[in-house]
Amino acid sequence: MADAATPRSTRRTFLGWGMAIIITSLTVSGILPILVFLWPPPPKGQTKGPLTIALDTPIDQLSDGQAVKFTAPASPNSAFIMADGGGDNAPGDLAFGGFVVMNQGKVQVLAINCSHLGCSVALNEGAKSFDCPCHGSRFHIDGTVLRGPAAYPLSHLTWKQGQDASTIEVDGLTLGF
Amino acid sequence: MSEEDLGKEGPGALSAPREIPLVEVDSHAGHTLEPEWKRLPIGPDSILYPVLVGIALFPMLMGDAGHHLADDMPDDETHPFFPDHFWPYPVIIMTMMVILGLFAWFVQKNLQLEQSADPRAVTIPRPDWYFLFLFQFIKLGPELLMSIIIPTIAFIGLLVWPFIDAVGGPRAARRLGWKRWPVPGRNIYTGTGFVVFLAIIALLELWALAGPNFCLPWFTGSVCGA
Amino acid sequence: MAIPHPREVQMAVVQWLDERYPFTKAINEAMYQRVPNFANAFYYCFGGMVFVLIVLQLVTGILLAIYYVPDARGNPAAAYTSVLFIQNSVYLGWLIRGVHFWGANILIIMVLLHMARVYWTGSYRAPRELNWMVGVIMLLLVLVLALSGYLLPWDTKAYFATEVTIKIAGSAPPAFLGAFIKQVLQGGPVVGPPTLQIFFTAHVFLLPALIVLLMYVHFRFIRAHGIAEPM
């Protein structure tokens, strides 16, 4: 094949390159501000801090292998921050619920989200396990995996004892919306 | 002939037989490029071809062009759409975007909001500039006539103007003894009428812009601006 | 295996496309249309500028709709605060809103200039009467777009300007028709949240769809008729 870049018309080639440059710069200078515009601005009224949660069953009344469910406050709209995680969960991810678990004398606070794809796990009191309704994952009451498809344990929440046995303070985020 | 002659440029230079680039086509029917005079300066082998395709998508979407005036004109009175006719448009687009950006940057005063709407607030309503002349016009007569009837008639008149011009024009030309009825740009009646129409709009606009303290006598009494 | 030159890759793609659709031919026809030299006059580009501005309005309008909240309840209303949010907090929000605002103003000027040019050169004459009518309807649509967009920030001047507009539209005879128009435009007995919802729907869904449709018709006509002969 011969050299295809044979000059045809210098003026038109110049016009063609000029237009290509202008059109390219137009596209770039048009798309860049759009991308900047799409980036969400810093939210107003979004604050990190401990959320005070009232439990249905006080911690000192939980017997071994028992758990109690709690949810994040709706007003103001808040969520808990996971301390660790694997699979679908990661440290810093948000959870809208959790369980306080009494396991061999030790109290643990777990986030409600399954580590497989994030469904809310349900307490199975008979088997003393957490069962995921979505794909059948099963977790031991201490959060470790008993059956897949989940591959990682449930996430923990950072917490401390509140004023009395029936309140706890869990690290969370007031969402501001 | 020496080696030097080969390197010479301008008149007297040797023109070596140039190989004409050929697109190798196999037997597929219809796959031949247009003849050279119709070839784009940017062909399918050019690095700029994707840009050309991008630009061409729009006229392609708009469908086949019919028989054009340009088809009957001599070649030196016409030019190809691309790039000879197209090239100002990217420049125009760029200029317009720059102007709009500068306006957005420096004239933010016009975009400032008043208080959130409150039906109990007391303000004098005033439309944007493109309705201001209409706003002023309404004050000049009975409300129904000025705000509904005349604008509606004006709009319908505008809509069917080509037919008014096509039917009424030749008749008027015959009465005037003209051979034909020219376009408004060369027509003392339709051209002047247009200028007078624009002048009325401009005067109404200026009247409104002059403000509520600028009043002129009118048949219905004194009428002030907005 | 040798790495093919980009040009060869491009040629192969073009050839592949050409075997399935007369791609090169279509592009050559579309781009190589002869244009009369008289069409180089500057006043022949007003229509193209209107097209560019409408595209710009569509793009910036879609972007604004991401942050705008069409809710007029309460004082200050969510619609009002969301416009303030766009103007003051969103990154480059002032630019996108400013371009939409000034673009609308320049669009109206350009539409009027385009129309004046078409009138002055007599380009509305046969066989282009239908295209003139499509254009006049689009002028009306552009003005209604400007009118409906004026209400969306939901501040005091927008509220009262809309009240006047609806009052005028509601004075259309006969009385029951005027009352019907007023009731439908207002969505209730006064200008309020339902009015904003109706104007928002018109401004964002109904009118842009109509104007894009009519633009397509307008351009099909232009392609069929070609550029009008000089006056």
Q: What can you tell me about this protein's structure?
A:
The complex is a heterotrimer of chains A (177), B (226) and C (231). Chain A is built from one helix and twelve strands; from the N terminus they run αββββββββββββ. Chain A is of the alpha+beta class and 177 residues long. Chain A has two domains: 1-39; 47-174, 3-layer Sandwich (Rieske Iron-sulfur Protein). In chain B, β2 and β3 form a beta hairpin. The model of chain B is unreliable at 1-7 and 25-37 (pLDDT under 50). Chain B is mainly α. Chain C has one domain (43-225): Cytochrome Bc1 Complex, Chain C (Up-down Bundle), CATH 1.20.810. The radius of gyration of chain C is 23 Å and the shape is globular. Chain C contains nine helices and one strand.
Mean pLDDT of chain C: 91
CATH topology-level fold name of the largest domain in chain A? Rieske Iron-sulfur Protein
Uncertain runs of chain C: none
Helix content of chain C: over 70%
- How far from one another are the termini of chain C? 63 Å
Would you tell me the structural class of the helices and strands of chain C? mainly alpha
